[in-house]
Design a protein that fits this description.
Layout: E1 5-8, H1 12-23, E2 28-31, H2 35-43, E3 51-53, H3 57-62, E4 69-72, H4 78-87, E5 96-99, H5 105-117, E6 121-128, H6 130-136, E7 139-144, H7 149-159, E8 174-175, H8 178-207, H9 212-222, H10 230-239, H11 262-273, H12 278-290, H13 293-300, H14 314-347, H15 353-359, H16 370-380, H17 391-413, H18 419-431, H19 438-449
Parallel strand pairs: 1-2, 1-4, 2-3, 4-5, 5-6, 7-8
Antiparallel strand pairs: 6-7
């Protein structure tokens, strides 16, 4: 037996990726530290397929066509380094290790350098789409050793999701940890999208007093228009799902959200690289605040606020809400792409921004019709500095702006919690402001810390200090 690729780590994602790869005509050898998982997989879903078991990493590596291609689907962090360490003595120069987990991009930078120094090639690839995407076609974002791309490209692009014209949602992203960085930003935007949708749900439920049936219909209607996306689609499905007693299941789910770290990594990267990801940051903190369930229950009995009461035109307000959601979504992507641009500048990556939008167009969690417009924006202007400056997105903001402001104002007046919708609007108002109050902030910094400031009547780059204390 000689296989095309090895897959290490037979969790649900690993199983589905192996099945996906095999269905495209490739043979796969699989290994997991838990031998029972391998046995069950081979005798179950993989039965009579070109998927072969191995009892050790050595056996898996020895049964591969050269250059060997080994895909790791193990937990991020130390487990990846541990498996790489075990593989090193089993491989030859030119062999390829692929990390398909949610690794932090600095780890991928380090691993690429380490393996290239040993004559091996390394790919850190983001894979998005969840269990269904892994089986039917995910979005795949590879980066690392470019010399490895020609060897894995046929496999990756065959197993990836395809857009309407058949183009695969997979292409080379860039050097070092660029692939995992792009996946990290994808996840950050995912956090933002999900929080915006949750705020729209809360406005409909708590301010408008809508039933689950009514909210389900709104999301299904939105999914037929410009808001069409996977997340809007599944939200409609969720709101329409009933428990065994006929009641909405969503209403019975505890309101404490989990997270696995990629959102936090995105926010930390934004601070390191000077990109104001205000909306995405609020989405991450929203999950943190949700986890304070017992504290919130106690505070709800002590702290006061307005009781939501809506007296206007409900249908018009729902229309405004859809426009507000779309406008805020534009901000989320504008911020994410700003982070990509800052990273490319910092690390010397040559990122294809329109190509990234195409990779996200299918298979992944944030897939939507909206992404096609982002691809068109960068095709029209490859040097675009901010999505808000693209004619299409500028016009959409202009059309949506009054609705957006009405939604934010009415929600705040009625005590509805909307951290992401309001952060998005504040970012927009800040970005469009020719002058911000940072002049006063610089004066304060100079007053207490002699940090100096630049002047409007002198050239940029000249700094001044004032003795602000007068007798």
């Amino acid at each position: 037996m000689t296989a095309d690729i090895a897959l290490i780590g037979i969790g649900v994602m690993g199983e589905n990726l192996a099945l996906n790869i095999e269905s495209k005509g490739y043979s796969v050898v699989v290994y997991d530290i838990n031998s029972t998982k391998v046995k069950d997989f081979i005798n179950g879903k993989a039965k009579n397929k070109k998927i072969y078991p191995s009892s050790s990493l050595a056996e898996a590596a020895s049964g591969l066509l050269k250059p060997r291609k080994i895909l790791l689907m193990v937990p991020a962090g130390d487990p990846v380094d541990s498996v790489i360490g075990e593989l090193l003595p089993l491989l030859e120069p030119g062999d390829i290790i692929i990390d398909g987990g949610n690794s932090h991009y600095p780890d991928t930078n380090r691993r690429t350098k380490l393996l290239e120094e040993k004559g091996l090639l390394f790919i850190g690839t983001g894979i998005s789409g969840g269990e269904e995407g892994a089986l039917k076609g995910p979005s795949i974002m590879p980066g690392g050793s470019y010399a490895a791309w020609k060897f894995v490209k046929p496999i990756f692009q065959s197993m990836a999701a395809k857009v309407d014209d058949g183009t695969p949602c997979c292409d080379w992203v860039g050097e070092d940890g660029a692939g995992h960085f792009v996946k990290m930003v994808h996840n950050g935007i995912e956090y933002g999208d999900m929080q915006l949708i949750c705020e729209a749900y809360q406005i409909m439920k708590d301010l408008l007093g809508m039933t689950y049936e009514e909210m389900e219909m709104v999301f299904k209607r939105w999914n037929q228009g410009e808001l069409e996306s996977y997340l809007i689609q599944i939200t409609g499905d969720i709101l329409g799902f009933r428990d065994a007693d006929g009641q909405p299941l969503a209403e019975k789910i505890l309101d404490t959200a989990g997270q696995k770290g990629t959102g936090k990594w995105t926010v930390l990267a934004s601070l390191d690289l000077g990109a104001p990801l205000t909306l995405i940051s609020e989405a991450v903190f929203a999950r943190t605040l949700s986890s304070l369930k017992s504290e919130r229950v106690g505070a709800s009995k002590i702290l006061s606020g307005p009781k939501p009461k809506f007296t206007g035109d409900k249908e018009k307000f729902i229309s405004d809400l859809g426009r507000a959601l779309y406008a805020a979504k534009i901000i989320s992507y504008a911020q994410g792409y700003l982070l990509l641009k800052n990273a490319a500048k910092e690390f010397g990556w040559n990122l294809n921004y329109g190509g990234i939008a195409l990779m996200w167009r299918g298979g992944c969690i944030i897939r939507s019709a909206f992404l096609g417009k982002i691809k068109e924006a960068f095709e029209l202007n490859p040097g675009l500095t901010n999505l808000l400056l693209d004619p299409f997105f500028k016009d959409k903001i202009d059309i949506s702006q009054d609705s957006w402001r009405r939604i934010v104002s009415e929600s705040v007046l009625n005590g509805i919690w909307i951290p992401a919708l309001s952060a998005a609007l504040n970012y927009y108002d800040g970005f469009r402001s020719e002058k911000l109050p940072a002049n006063l902030l610089q004066a304060q910094r100079d007053y207490f810390g002699a940090h100096k400031y630049e002047r409007t009547d002198r050239p940029r780059g000249e700094f001044f200090h004032t003795n602000w204390i007068t007798e």
